Amino acid sequence: MALDVDGFVALGAIARSPEVFPDIRADLARTVRALVVKQLKAKNLTLDGLRRVRKCLGTETYALIVDGLTEAEARALIGRLDRHHAEAKLAKADWLRRRLADLAGGAEPAVRAKALPRRRSGSPAGDPSFTRALGSPAFTASWDRKDHDRTGKAASRATRAKAARGKKKGG
Question: Which range marks the domain in which residue 29 is found?
Fold first, then answer.
């Protein structure tokens, strides 16, 4: 039966004596970042779990790790932890990362907005609070055979052309 190394004990020993392991400093930072991101991506991570991760790592280290998340990773986390936030679907990566930091710092997730009651297809429309397009003044206007849009040079050119045509017919 093969025995395996206890990773927590080994990482704790490395953390207590960094001078013994000077050549793995960069690898250790990459490994710790990867391990924390993997924990954040875990399907069973709750808001309380996110807050415990931040408390354990400290605010600065947590912020550095969250700042390294890709937009897709941050969006997936927000989608699970704060799914009802109105801005989350269209937000940029910076906003998503800031929101993750806020949630871990104690902010509460957005509550679900109450949906408007749906009208049955067979029920009467009731009193709409908006003007329908066919009832608007633009659709009820009638044409008085005058071009009210022409102004300036275009209008005077059209008037001269009309007068010239009238002279040709009369002459």
Answer: 7-105
Prediction pTM value: 0.60
Judge whether 127 lies within some domain: no
Task: Specify if 13 maps to a domain.
Answer: yes
Eight-class DSSP state of 122: T
Specify if 117 maps to a domain.
Answer: no
pLDDT in tens, the chain (171 residues): 567 889 899 999 999 999 999 999 999 989 999 999 999 999 999 999 999 999 999 999 999 999 999 999 999 998 888 887 778 778 888 888 999 999 999 888 877 766 556 666 555 555 555 555 555 666 666 777 777 776 666 666 777 777 777 776 655
User: What is the total count of domains within the chain?
Assistant: 1
